[in-house]
Design goal:
Elements lengths: L1 E2 L4 E2 L26 E9 L9 E9 L23 H17 L4 H17 L2
Antiparallel strand pairs: 1-2, 3-4
C-alpha cells in the first residue's frame, strides 16, 4: 500500500504464497495523527499469472477525537455465580479452603504429620 501523492510506501511489499482460490490478508499500519481525508493505493501483483494485477484506490477519513459521539456505558461487572453452577461450586471450595487456613486447620499439614507418625512406628520394628 502506498501514498502516491507523497511517493511513500505505507505497508512494505510482502510475498504471499499458497493461495488456492481466495485468501484474506490483513495488513496493519499506523493511521495518520491529523484529521483529514487521506488517499492510498493498494497494489496486488502476481508473479505467476499475466494480466491479474490489481490497483485499488482507498480513502481513509480520519476524524478529530472531539467529533466522535460519546461511548455508551458498558456494564462489565461480573455477577456472582449461582451455587448450582461449576463456578459457584469452585467459589464455595475456595471460601471453605480459605476459612480452614485462617482457622489453622490446613489439610496439607495434617497429612504430613500423619505420615511422620507412620514412619516413626515403622522404625520401632
Amino acid at each position: 500500500m502506498a501514498d502516491d501523492k507523497k511517493d511513500r510506501i505505507i505497508i512494505e511489499p510482502m510475498k504471499i504464497t499458497n493461495i488456492v482460490t481466495t485468501r484474506t490478508i490483513r495488513c496493519h499500519f499506523q493511521a495518520p495523527h491529523d484529521p483529514g481525508l487521506y488517499s492510498y493505493v493498494a497494489y496486488v501483483k502476481s508473479d505467476s499469472y499475466v494480466g491479474t494485477d490489481i490497483r485499488k484506490d482507498l480513502r481513509l477519513d480520519v476524524k478529530d477525537f472531539s467529533e466522535l459521539p460519546p461511548e455508551e456505558e458498558i456494564d462489565d461487572e461480573i455477577s456472582e455465580p449461582e451455587e448450582d453452577s461449576i463456578a459457584g461450586q469452585m467459589k464455595l471450595m475456595r471460601e471453605q479452603g480459605f476459612a480452614a487456613a485462617v482457622a489453622g486447620g490446613g489439610g496439607g499439614s495434617q497429612k504430613k504429620q500423619n505420615n511422620d507418625s507412620d514412619s516413626s512406628d515403622s522404625d520401632d520394628d
